[in-house]
Design a protein that fits this description.
Length: 304
């Protein structure tokens, strides 16, 4: 039975991956409590003890603004740790699966980014994630690197939950409208990861070296349009009564809401390489959002 080591089991994507990976082999799933990626010795010891055939790294330092004041920690978790995983994977002839981000780009391109576009990260977080990609490539192990964007899901903290909380508190919402990207469901990321690994298991795809793919939902929008859609769908979901009208959300520009870390104005990712390689079509994010809202409403009604 294929031995799979999943890191970051408690995160948005890691939580979903526990289900998607289960049919592919024996999954050992660990979270920060069992293995903090900042502890490189513990990480190396875990991999050597488990001897996995597949390592799936869904753990990362994701506090984008906080990273500006913690660059060393962000680099250690997002760059040094993945490079270590890659070195260990190469020694074991294991396959490494790793997730990266749209923040590796500066956002100045007028069209969607493809994998061959030159990265130019503008934030500590983006630079740390790019360094992680580069560290994996340098190790020359078998690897799949998926760049994704604007992740959301019922588990963990994300933009959807923040908008629902602020709207529920009656707060006036002013949301940036000049940054565009694809809200991408954690469930979609995990499902596609499972499909790709299924192709590897069947022998339909035998990766040599590092393969980079963009993985994001179809139909990109601005943050403001995303927020209005969240409120619109939530208002039609039993359990979210009393929310403001979507049109009441004010559209503002980035300059009106300064943050410590700069964000790409254009976070659109072209997923053609992944779609053609595995006969896939990236789905719309809205049905996933609707299902997430239904799940949150059920949890709210049941008090958990």
């Amino acid at each position: 039975m294929t031995r799979i080591l999943l890191l970051g089991k408690d995160g948005q994507v890691g939580w979903q991956l526990q289900r998607s990976l289960a049919p592919l082999g024996h999954v050992t799933a660990v979270g920060r409590a069992e293995c903090d990626l900042a502890n490189l010795d513990a990480l190396r010891a875990l991999i050597r003890a488990e001897q996995p055939q597949i390592i799936v790294n869904a753990a990362a330092y994701t506090a984008v603004d906080k990273a500006e004041s913690e660059p060393e920690l962000a680099h250690r978790i997002n760059a040094t740790a993945p490079a270590l995983m890659a070195e260990e994977a190469q020694a074991l002839d294991a396959l490494l699966v790793h997730y990266s981000t749209d923040y590796v780009f500066d956002g100045n391109k007028s069209t969607a980014y493809v994998e061959t576009d030159a990265p130019n990260p503008q934030s500590v977080y983006g630079r740390s994630k790019l360094a992680g990609e580069q560290g994996i490539a340098a190790a020359n192990c078998r690897a799949l690197i998926f760049r994704t964007s604007w992740v959301f899901g019922a588990r963990g903290h994300n933009f959807v939950k923040t908008i629902l909380r602020l709207a529920g508190e009656g707060r006036a919402l002013r949301i940036i409208d000049d940054q565009t990207g694809s809200p991408t469901p954690a469930a979609m990321i995990s499902s596609i990861t499972g499909l790709v690994l299924g192709a590897v298991r069947r022998g339909d795809f035998q990766p040599e070296g590092a393969h980079l793919y963009h993985l994001a939902a179809a139909n990109p929008v601005s943050w403001c349009a995303f927020a209005r859609t969240i409120i619109d769908l939530a208002s039609r979901t039993p359990g979210f009564e009393g929310l403001p009208a979507p049109a009441s959300i004010a559209a503002i520009c980035t300059a009106e809401y300064p943050l410590p870390a700069p964000r790409p104005a254009n976070s659109r990712l072209d997923c053609t390489h992944l779609e053609t390689g595995f006969a896939l079509e990236m789905p719309d994010w809205q049905p996933y959002l609707a299902r997430m809202l239904q799940l949150l409403a059920i949890k709210q009604r049941n008090g958990y």
